[in-house]
Known about the structure:
This protein is an all-beta fold. 0% of the residues lie in helices and 46% in strands. It is built from no helices and 16 strands. The protein has a 4-stranded mixed beta sheet with strand order 2-8-7-5, with no helix packed on it. It has a 4-stranded mixed beta sheet with strand order 10-16-15-13, with no helix packed on it. A two-stranded antiparallel sheet has the order 1-4. A hairpin with a 5-residue loop joins strand 7 (72-81) and strand 8. It is rod-shaped and about 165 Å long.
Amino acid sequence: xxxxxxxxxxxxxxxxxxxxxxxxxxxxxxxxxxxxxxxxxxxxxxxxxxxxxxxxxxxxxxxxxxxxxxxxxxxxxxxxxxxxxxxxxxxxxxxxxxxxxxxxxxxxxxxxxxxxxxxxxxxxxxxxxxxxxxxxxxxxxxxxxxxxxxxxxxxxxxxxxxxxxxxxxxxxxxxxxxxxxxxxxxxx
Length: 188
């Protein structure tokens, strides 16, 4: 500053511009995916990004892109932090659906002889059941250990998993009557 007599004085001031504008965390729309083959969930990838008025900063998604998501719905939260420490959040859902049918293996057809004195036989067998997610139920038209009549009986096995997916297999149980009849003749 200079007055009329030519005297001068100076001062210095500092102007500080603060970034108070928060960043914008960018979340995709809700994601719907199927389970990975043989798994009760899926590895899910999505774009992780944010925008800000000033350079620098980062964004953290929890769980992160490329994580394994279990069957069901998981909330993903993103927190963006800019270089000035301002934060912003967004969130979206990842829903993993189990569309994989359970696997069931029936035994080969079974043939047995009747139990002496009866018109049938007790037949036991085993099944192989597997699914990518736990909680399957098995319905057998004629359970193992049942008494099967003489002749051929089809056995139908239906496996339903917790998500409602079904598989079936079938086999036949044949009981042969190998017992000769008994003739009671009267006395002479």
